Structures are given as structure tokens and as C-alpha cells.
Amino acid sequence: MPKLRDGSSLCTARSETARRQVIRPFVCSTFKDFHAERDFLQEKIFPQLNKICNERGTSFIPVDLRWNKSQSQQNSEHVLRLCLDSIGRCAPFFICLLGDRYGVHRAAESEVKDPATEEWLDKNFETAAACGYEWLLEEDNRYNSITELEIVQASFRKKYDYGYFYFRNPTHLEEKLQDIDPSQKESVLSVYKPEKSEYAARKLRELKQQTIDTELPVRHYTTLEELGDLLIKDWMAVIDLLYPPIDPHVFRSTESEVFREWSAHEAFAEARRQVFVRTPRIREMVEVLSLHAEVEQGIKRRSSMMVPSAVLGTFMTSLPGSEKETLPPVLVLAGESGCGKSTLVSHWLKLITASHPQLVTIPHFVGCDSGSTDVTNFMRRCTSELRLHYLDSDLDDSNDIKDLSDFTRVIEAFRAALTLGPSVIVLDGGDHLGHALDVPAFTVKEMQWLPSSVPVSCRVIITTTKSDMTYRALSQRKDVNCIDVPQLFDVRGKTDLLREYVGSNYNFLGSSRISKITSSSLAHLPLYYVALACELRVFGAHKNAEKLLESYVHASTLFDLWSLIFRRWTHEYGWLRPAVSRGPVPAIKAQVSRDRMNSGWVADVLRLFVLSREGLSEHEALSALMIMGYVRNYEVTKAHWEMLRLIAEHVLTEMPSGLLTFPHQSARGAIEIALLGNLTSPSQERPVSPLFKGSWERQKQQGHTVLTSLFSTQPSSGRTVDELPWQLNMGGNMEALCKTICEPRVFVRLLNSSSEKRRKIDLQSYWRVLKKANRKPEEVLYQMAIQSSERLHDESKEVTTREVGSASSKTNDSSAIDKLCRKANDDALSQLEIALVHYFAGKFLGENGHDQMAHTLLLNAYKMAYPVISVKDIYLMCDIQESLGNFYLKLSEPSKAAFWFNGAFKSAGEMARTSDLVEHEALIGRLLNYIALCQLPSHVPLPPEVHSRSRAPTRNGRVKTPNSGREREKTEEMGSENIGTILDEALRHMKIVQMFPGQSSVYSHMGLLAARQRRREDAESLFRKSLSMREQWYGSCHPLVAEIYDALASLSCSDAAESPDVATAEEMFRRALHMREDLLGQSHLLVANTLFKLGKLLQAKGTKDAIREAKLLFQRALDIRTSKQGVYHAETKTIRRALMSLETVDVGAKFSGKGSGKEKELLALEGVRSRPLTKASSRVDFRQASASQY
Predict the structure, then answer these.
(1) Which is the most buried residue in 4, 412, 1013, 1094, by most CB within 10 A?
(2) Cis-peptide into 92, omega within 30 deg
(3) DSSP per residue over 927-979, as a string?
(4) 1039-1052 helix and 1062-1080 helix, angle to the nearest 10 degrees
(5) What is the DSSP letter of 306?
(6) What is the distance in angstroms between the CA of the first residue and the CA of the last residue of the chain?
(7) Among 1099, 570, 405, 739, which residue's Cα sits nearest to residue 724?
(8) What's the mean pLDDT when you consider all of the chain?
(9) CB of 18 within 8 A of CB of 259?
(10) Which stretches of sequence are listed as region Disordered (predicted)?
């Protein structure tokens, strides 16, 4: 899929599609008479809209400001400002409910005044006016209710595009009174009846009429159900307009890992683009980035006079060995933290993709989510996007988990992908890269994972700091050009930036304060204004504004500034939880300091955000605070939460999923140091260790305990699977971690989807951690699977005969995997669900080398699933049978493997309907390929004339004649025709779904078949085509690439070779051996295969050194075969005989001076040829080695 219909690249389409914002309407109404409506919407309607939004890749999270009556916040003078600020944050979404009450307002001349209400309103009006809402002091607004002022702000002063009004009909009260006890009528009337004021009634009528006259969308309802229907209809239209269903060609699902990744990166970039001030220096840097990116991209380079010649002279260099002046492929932007690099790159990316949508542009922002700091995730993401664009394929038939978890393989695939075609890759925040898999961070930052020479058509842009290792490593490369990011803002630019961030409060500052702010030692850093932005918005009504501002502008570092800001938040907005709750509930509180900064709910929740993996949603954060003891009168309500969100608007970024995370690493680091007392970011680098007793260790342990309690009580979901095991790991609770990842619902969800690569890597990571902690997770997992049979549901114990035709009634049932993942730990399981547990456990154990356990569980899975499988879940039977086939193929038992592959193929044919045609076609092609592989001969045959030249004695003393050979060949030729047909059909299916690596596998097997049929040229052509495809996909160093080199070397020495090239064959064998040893380990069976073949080749050379090395190779191969397959396996016996023949030759050589010439000749003939290699002898000696090829 190189380009879409509009000419855009898939990367551009994904970037635009993933650029989604949360739909967050502000809910406005009078409080007293709309509690029922608000509760109904919150419990019934909003969850439905949020579910639909989740399917569209975003969230529906209304702001409903309500607080506890017993708390003092409702008496605060900041209520009106909080409401108006929230309306601005929710723009352009607004929901207004109006009934028969006008709301709290100043009393008119004809009304009785309440001194307390008047005083509260005066304070709120003054506070809001001081914070930028001066229009509140206008005479027309002084006597308006709080509700009307909210409407004025959202609909009259700034008409929001998506504001809807719902007027409740007066007849609703009659219906309510009909269903209640007469004794309760008075209390109901007191809630809903209008205020006893003609002024309030008149103002309410005028407000409603003005709303209608302004042509705002107004709906009328009587019952809650009518309100729900109207609201769903209106907001579904909004959702459809803003975020229609996603094109499946762009993203197959919003639940997929690739969508979540793109969404995280785009949300990070959009947060940077919210405020952008153009200055001459920024325009210059944007032009430099464009000049760099347009090279070799099929774009006519634009000339611009905006870039000074001095800058261009520095930027333009010549690559070593290049005849023409060109730009290096890698551009490094180096500048101190907070200087605006990320904002610059984010803005430029939007410009370049808009002007050149055909470009293959892959942005990666380190810090946008937990996986972004792992360079292997960056490389896998680039590899996948480039493969999809240039090879039109993202399906991989390889079941090797090491393709994801092996650092070397990931690098090789990444380097191969960079050569596929032109691309623009952006890595923002190279200085924040962390450890990757088992590779430490300092090794990653040496940048050795980049190719030694990046292709010129691959334009790479990396941002970092000059003090980081990445800059030192990159600056020493010849294909890199480093540019120091200058100060992007002059005096005017700083003032404009301040105005953009502060908004309406800019007038409050005055020239003296503005001068003081822009004269700070940090004033050249845009992040400085980000930190000050929300603080300056509330300074207009702050009692100590001057003192706070003075401390802020004199902060010497960004860390000091963030620390001062966090201190104010905890002092002014937080409160302590009751002492009675501090015993049983873990307290995240400094053990060595009594500083108030470390206490209260604000400090607690900031710490929880830092200790979470992917951030927390509003609901999760409030639930965690309740776990800590903030309940009843100490509860943190949504109103209090909204106040924190407003002041932390630029500190916490809301992802489309609703999760809140830190967009700036400096803010996160300041919280870790100031609130956790940690200097090394342990929450991201290592788990809690009992060896360390520092205060931050205790705080971190307590925080992870709270989050573990939170996620352990939530229903099973992808979110729970991502967070809960990680929290247990980071908290150092190995026993609970082992138990959790072995729970069926967690384990199956971690392994279920082939596209969820991160979760599979997570499981491997947890597995390694448990092994290092001297746990035995394989035994726990095996016992869990075996004991799951005890949870068999009573009704499931009745096993019925499997009838596919009668199973059609089950087609509409939920998937068995979905049901299993929703089950609680103590819920009963159906027989099919137990089979699934056995299948996933067996498959995973097999991938990790526990073959005996895997074999038992896979067979159990088949026996349990076969009688009860339904049409909807028939693909599970295919998976089980395919896994058994792969298991036997791994053990070199092709006949048994063929039985299971044929069974899987039959099951696949029984699928009446399938929702994923691509997966089905890929499955058919893969199974046909496996079936053909099992039928292929294990070696390349010898021609009759070669047999006649080498009449080697058999064990019974008989010699095979050419006639017996011809009969065998005739039989094999008949089978070859069938194999060729199967392979052709497999290739057809794989081409339908563009299964690139699968096609390479088919070509490899076609090459083996051609060699069997003595079509050497065809065989070599097919092998080399497979090699080219595999090197494009996997890189130059991969086990499957080694397989082709092994096959080509075998082919050159087979009976089909006219003139064997011994030197080339030996070189390819050694290359295959080196790859297999490095990638598979010294004791792998494939290593034994290549050892034996190389030994036979060296033996045939006949030199003394070659014979000596051959003997060592045979011995190594024999040791591997014996340990893996036993002493009686056919391959083990073959190697033992070869080794014995060499030893016989050695014995003969010792007595070479004592025997007659005839005796010496007999000794030589009894061994395998010790004379120099010839055309004929090379074919004879290599036939046994070829037998071990596959």
C-alpha cells in the first residue's frame, strides 16, 4: 500500500487519523434541581457515548463539577473562576440543562437579600474578574446567576460549535408526583419548584428566549429517558462529524498496538503545537529542516532566501567519496533541555506532511509513553512502517519470539528496512532513551544500532542535548551534521510567547512584571513560560502574587522552578487524609522530612502519576486516592480534581484514551526528585530492591502497592494487563507477579493477539525477572494449566460428539477467548476455555524450551477442544493443530508434523465465515507451505552414474544398483509433482495477502524441490530469490538467512552441480555456521546440521588440517545430536559413523609405514575419501551431509 487514493502515504494518513482529541463537554445546570439528570447521564448515557468514542480512537469525558457539601470548597471564592476556566478548557463542547430555577444570583431590589450569599458572590465575582474575566463587573452581568454567566461565556460571548441546550418541560413535576408517597410531595416540590422571585422567573424566561433567538440548538424533554435519547442523538452526530469510523486500510482497529502508538505520538506533538510563536530564527530552522528532509525524496528542492548563507555554508557538507555536494543523511539538533526542540520539530512535521503528503514520514517522540524510551520499539515501529509502504506487507509467518526480543535481530531488520526506499525519520529526545530489552541505556546511547552508513535517501532527524552521550556518539560520525539550536526568541518573541500562554490575564501583569519575567535567567527557554503559564493565570487574585513571582523569576534551573510550583500546589490545594486511615492504608509520605510539600492529596496523586506506567485516568486517580483514605469528608471530588487539572494544564497531557501523563521530562523528573527523594529515576530504571532502605524506596514501594490494589480490583482488560504485572514487578513482589502472569485471563490476554508485540515482550521480560529471582514460572504455569480442569463447569462435563454442521447455531456466540479473558479467577470454565488455557500455556512453554511440558499441554488442548469446538471458534482448532505440527517439525519428525498440518488445513476448510479474510488466506497459505515442507525429501539425490563410481558398502554388505535407484527416483518424481502443486497454491494464497516473508519461505522450498529434480539452475535462482527477500525483511544476519546460505552451499556440492565450487561452498557454510551460533546458540540442532555438512566438505578436501578440523566439527555435531535427540536417533548414528570413519583413517595413517601398498589402499577405501576433492567425488561424499539439510 504505497499510497492511498488521495496520493498520501500511509504514514501521513495514520498521522492525521491518530490526531484525535478527547470530547469533553462542560455540563451546565442549576445544581439543586438537576441531581437526577446529572446522575442519569453520568451512569447511563455518558458511558454509552464513551464506548462509541473508544471505538473511534478517542474518549467522551464530560466535566461535571460537583463537590461534597461538608467540604469548604463550595464556600471558596474561586468557584465562579473555576467554572469559567473549565468552560474554556472544554471548548468547543457544551451541554446545558435548564428547568424552572434560575440559580444562585445577587438579589434584585425587589428581593430579600441573604448577607452570606451576597458576600460569597461578591468574592467570586471579584476573584474571577481579577483572573481575566473583567466583563463580569459590567452592570448587565452583576445580577446574573452563576448558571447564566456560564451560558454567556460558552454561547453568547464565544459561540461554541458544539453546544446543546436541553429544556425540561414543566409537566415533568406532575409525573414525578404521581409515583411518590403524599408525605414526600413537599420535599420534592422544594427541590423542583421555581424560586419565589419574579425577578428570577423573568430572567429565566429571557435567558431561554435569548437562547432560542440566537439559534442555538434547543431540545425539550420531560422524562430522563427522553433526555437520554436526545443527548445520544445529538452527540452521536458530533462524534460522526469529528471522528468518523477509521478506514480499515489505515488502521485495522483502534484497539491495535499500532494505533495506540501513533495516537500517543500525535497527542504528544499536538500538546507541543497548542502554543507556537513564529520568530525569524524559528522560520530559519524550519527551512533548514525542510532542506534536509527533501533530499532524495522525489521533491524538487525549494530555494529560499530566508536561510542566511552563513547557516547554509555550515549546513552544506560533502559526504566522503561523493562526487557532488550533498547533505548528510543524519541531522542532529542539539540544545539544552526546554529550549523548544520538540515544539519546533512538531510544528515542522505538521507543515511538511501537509505540503508533501506523499512523503514517508515516521515521527517518534521519546517520552510520549512508557515504551517510547526503548529504542527497540522505535526500530520495530520504523521497520513495520517501511515494510508496509515499500513491500506492501506487514504479515510475518515467523513464530520466533526472538525476532521481537533479540536486540541484534531487531537492529538487523531495522537496517534492512532503511534501505527499502526514501523516508524521513524523526527521533525527538534522544537524550531520554533508556535501556532496551537487556541492553543498558549507556550502550543504547552509543548509537551503534544505527547503520555504519545511513542511506542518503533515508533522512534522519535526531534531537538531543550536547551534554548527553548521544551527542558525543553522533558528532563523531561522518554521515551526521550537528546544528546547535540557537535562542529562538528575541525580546519581542518572549513577550508574544508570554501573551499566548497567559491569555486574558496578560493585562494583569503590567510592563514591570513582564520585564521581570522576560529578564529571568531562564527566559530564553520556552519551557519556562510553559511552567509559569497556569501560575500567572491565578496570580491576579492571589494574596502573595508578588512574592511568588519573585521566587519564580529567580529560579536558577527548571528543576527549582518546578519544585516551587509543586510546593504551592500542595500547600494551597491539598489536604491531609484522616489519621485513622494511615495505618492500614500505605502512606506515600516522606519518612525523613516533615515538609508539607510531601503531604496531602495533591502530592500523593502526583507521585502516583510518576509511579504509573502509562499514566492514570481521572477515574483511576480518584479511585487510588480513595484507596489511600481520602473518603467521606476528605474525598477529592470532581470539582477539586478540576481545579488541579486547570493549574496543571500544561504539566499533564490528556491522551485520546483519557490517560493523563507528563509531556515534559523535566516536570516528571522534578516530581521524582522533590516528592520521591530520588536522583536516578528508579521508577523507570529498576524495581524496588530490599537491599536499599532509602526513603524513596519506601515511598516507591508504597505507591506501587496502592496502584497494585487499584488495578487488581478492576475488570480484566488490556489496560489491566499492561499495568498490574508491571506494578508488581517494579514493587519487587515476585511471588504475586508469578501468580498474576500465570492467571488464565492475564496470560491469555498477553499472548492472544499476534499484533500485540509489546505485551509478548513484557511477558518474556517478566519471565526472565522471575528466573533471576530463583522462581520457577514454568512449573507454576504448567500446574495452573493442569489445575484449570478443576474449574470445569458442571454443564461442560457432558462431552458431545463434534458435528460441524449442527454447530452453526453457535456462530453468533462470543469468542471463547473473549469469554475467558472476562472470567474472574474463581469463575468456572467451559471445556473449550480450559483447552485454550492448555493451548496458550503449551505454546509458550514450547517457545521457551520446555518441550515435554509443551507436548503434554498441546495434546491435552486438542483432546479437550475437539469434541466441543464451534464454527465461530474453529480457528482455535487450527491454531492448536498448527502448533503441534510446528512442535514435531522442530523435533525433525516430518511425518507426525504432516499429520497435524493436514488436520489444521481440514479445520480451516470448515470455517463457514470469517471476519478476517486476510488472516484466513494467510493461514491457508502457511499450512500448505508446511504440508509441502513435510513431504520434501530430506536430501538431494545422486544420479546413477555417480553411484556406480562409489560403491560404498552398507551395513549388510549389499551394494545399491542403478536399477533400484531409478525405481526410487520414479516414485519420488511422482511425489514431486504433487509437492509442486501444493507449493504453487501456497504461493498464490500468500500473494493475495502480500505475505512477503511467507513467499520467501515458499521460494526456498521450491528451490529444494528443484534441486531434488536436478534442476540446479532453477534451484539456485529460487534460493537466491528467497535470500534476497529474506535479507530485505530480516536483514543480513538472521537464522532464516543462514538457512538459505546453508542450502546454497549444499546445492553447490550436490549431485546436480556440474563443477562444484568448493571455496564458495566452504565460505557459505562458515557464514551460515557463524550466524546460527550467534543467533541460535552453540547447542542448537541447526548448528549441528551445518557443523556436519562443513565437516564433510573439509573431509573431502583431504588435507591434513582439513581432516583435523572435520573431526572436531563431527564431534561437536555428535555431542549436540546426542544431547538433543539421543544416541539412537538416525541423525546421531549418521554423524557417529562419519566420525568413526575419520578415526579409522587416522589409525591407518599411524601404520602407514608398516603395511603393504594393498593394505594401505584398503585402509583408505574403508574411510571416507582422504584424497583431494574432484568433480565426481564431491558429489558422492556430500550426499550424507545433504540428508541433514532439512
Answers:
(1) 1094
(2) yes
(3) HHHHHHHHHS-SSPPPPHHHHHH-----TTS----HHHHHHHHHHHHHHHHHH
(4) 160
(5) S
(6) 35
(7) 739
(8) 82
(9) yes
(10) 944-975
Distance CA 877, CA 865 (A): 7
- Cell, residue 1116: 561437536
Residue at grid coordinates 532439512: 1190
The more confidently predicted of residues 253 and 1180 is 253
User: Closest by alpha carbon to 740, among 700, 767, 761, 758?
Assistant: 767
pLDDT, one tens digit per residue, over 1116-1159 is 999 999 998 889 888 899 999 989 888 776 655 555 554 444 44
- Asked if 634 and 648 touch (Cβ cutoff 8 Å), the reply is no
Say which residue the cell 512538531 belongs to.
346
635's grid cell: 474525598
Q: What angle do CA 208, 211, 212 make, to 5 degrees?
A: 90
CA separation (Å) from 403 to 214, 397, 869, 1003? Answer: 62, 11, 32, 21
Strands 653-654 and 660-661: antiparallel
Q: Which residue has the higher pLDDT, 579 or 421?
A: 421
DSSP 157: I
Question: Which pLDDT belongs to residue 928?
Answer: 94
- Chain segment 248-281, per-residue pLDDT in tens: 889 988 989 999 999 999 999 998 888 878 888 8
C-alpha cell at 1057: 552441480
> 477 vs 189, which has greater pLDDT?
477
pLDDT-wise least confident of 333-342, 745-754, 1170-1179: 1170-1179
Share of the chain above pLDDT 70, in %: 83
What is the per-residue pLDDT for 581? Answer: 52
144, three cell numbers: 446574573
Question: How many helices (H) and strands (E) are present in the chain, helices listed first?
Answer: 53, 11
* pLDDT-wise least confident of 119-123, 227-231, 301-305, 1008-1012: 301-305
> For residue 750, how many C-alpha atoms fall within 13 Å in the half-sphere facing its CB?
29
pTM of the model: 0.87
Q: How far apart are CA 42 and CA 788, in angstroms?
A: 39
Could you tell me which residues come within 8 angstroms of residue 313 by beta carbon, excluding any fewer than 6 positions away? none
What kind and span of H or E run contains 218?
Answer: strand 218-221
Q: At what angle do helices 115-130 and 79-90 cross, to 10 degrees?
A: 50
Determine the distance from the C-alpha atom of residue 1148 to the mean position of all C-alpha atoms in its chain, rounded to a whole number. Answer: 64
Task: Kindly report the length of the chain.
Answer: 1190
Question: Among 69, 72, 83, 76, which residue's Cα sits nearest to residue 119?
Answer: 76
How far apart (Å, rounded) are the C-alpha atoms in residues 727 and 653? 22
Confidence grade of residue 891 (pLDDT, cut at 50, 70, 90): confident
Nearest Cα residue to 292 out of 409, 470, 454, 95: 454
